[in-house]
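Fill in residues.
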């Protein structure tokens, strides 16, 4: 069960491992390598709204970044079996993200929150939005009537999501964020000062020049490459869909406490 209150750093590391948010995660090694290869081969589904050009055509370069920033096994000959996310890297990235949230709160900035993984991370983003609003930030309200080929771009509990067939939709696409930012510009409204998101929502925001921080799994390398290049400010490595979304509560509590928002 999730631990109550705000954990210490050591308690959080232990919790991440026990719940498999980090440590020995559910995503197998072969799936990780398959995604790294597809990104390197130019499959834009795996670019998460970014424009990577020809810079990451060698899958071994992708693996090297993922070993450094996520903690997956760095041996290119290790091709099947268990892979890992280093919980210390997860917590360190949470602390970096907390620094950017603190800056947003101190400046009462405009913040947009969004998720392409509502089954796992909606609660994380909603709690972050509530804390930022309480600190005086403006939570950006997205324009009405937006849609992409996948569905409608909605805002639910202060978090932008994709809706398809009356269901919140899992998407890697950057098109929903493109739709929001384009509509804001068309209406003459200011863009967010900060986007807190995941998947293509975070990637496209960074590509568009908006400060972006986000979360990504070990089989979604694009945001980590973007952080390495400076397009995305922070990417937190974690399993983005564990058994219960409540398992993320201690992590969220730690993040908000580090940001001075609790």
């Amino acid at each position: 069960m999730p631990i109550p209150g705000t954990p210490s750093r050591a308690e959080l590391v232990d919790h991440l491992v026990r719940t498999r948010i980090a440590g020995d995660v559910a995503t197998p090694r072969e799936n990780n390598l398959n995604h790294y290869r597809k990104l390197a081969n130019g499959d834009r589904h795996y670019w998460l709204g970014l424009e990577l050009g020809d810079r990451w055509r060698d899958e071994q370069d992708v693996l090297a970044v993922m070993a450094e920033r996520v903690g997956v096994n760095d041996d290119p000959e290790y091709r099947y079996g268990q892979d890992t996310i280093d919980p210390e890297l997860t917590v360190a990235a949470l602390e970096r993200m907390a620094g950017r949230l603190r800056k947003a709160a101190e400046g009462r900035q405009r913040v947009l929150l969004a998720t392409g993984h509502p089954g796992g991370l909606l609660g994380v983003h909603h709690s972050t939005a509530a804390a930022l609003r309480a600190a005086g930030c403006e939570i950006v309200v997205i324009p009405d009537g937006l849609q992409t080929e996948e569905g409608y771009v909605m805002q639910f509990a202060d978090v932008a999501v994709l809706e398809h067939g009356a269901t919140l939709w899992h998407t890697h696409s950057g098109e929903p964020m493109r739709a929001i930012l384009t509509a804001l510009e068309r209406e003459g409204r200011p863009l967010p000062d900060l986007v807190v998101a995941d998947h293509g929502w975070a990637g496209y925001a960074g590509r568009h020049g908006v400060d972006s921080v986000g979360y990504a799994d070990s089989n979604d390398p694009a945001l980590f490459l973007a952080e390495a290049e400076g397009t995305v400010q922070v990417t937190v490595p974690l399993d983005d869909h564990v058994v219960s979304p409540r398992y993320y509560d201690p992590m969220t509590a730690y993040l908000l406490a580090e940001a001075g928002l609790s």
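The radius of gyration is 17 Å.
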